[in-house]
Design a protein that fits this description.
Layout (H helix, E strand, L loop, with lengths): L3 H13 L12 E3 L8 E4 L14 E4 L3 H22 L14 H13 L5
Antiparallel strand pairs: 1-2, 2-3
Helix pairs in contact: 1-2, 1-3
The structure holds zinc ion (ZN).
Length: 118
């Protein structure tokens, strides 16, 4: 039987799962793509804060600037979200009992991450 604590732990594991190939684990940036829009995700071993692809960057063009921004933000948010959810580990709260509002938000986030009810 699943419990809110198990759902939170499962969401933390999902957030920390090796989702990307190792060469894509460096921070992602949004850069100008072939379409000349800021619609391309770029990963690079070389730190360069500009908006360009240095030629050695690994890139994925999304063709939608808003989507590229959203993907970059969500990838960057994975570890902070995991740490926040993990901070609830061990807290004795039950879904059918009184739950602090922020725990309800954490549970909602965990369920979205797990692909369940929103
Ligand atoms: Zn580069």
């Amino acid at each position: 039987m699943t419990t809110p604590a198990k759902e939170i732990r499962a969401a933390v594991a999902d957030l920390r799962a090796p989702l990307l190939p190792a060469y894509l684990t460096v921070p992602v940036r949004v850069v100008q793509g072939d379409s000349e829009s800021m619609d391309t995700l770029a990963w690079c071993d070389v730190h360069h804060p500009d908006d360009n692809d240095c030629g050695a960057c690994e890139t994925v063009e999304t063709l939608h600037p808003a989507l590229a921004h959203l993907i970059a933000v969500l990838l960057a948010a994975r570890e902070p979200l995991a740490a926040w959810l993990e901070s609830w580990d061990g807290v004795e709260l039950h879904e059918d009992g009184p739950m602090r509002d922020d725990f309800q938000h954490a549970l909602k986030v965990a369920r979205v991450i797990l692909g369940g009810a929103q």
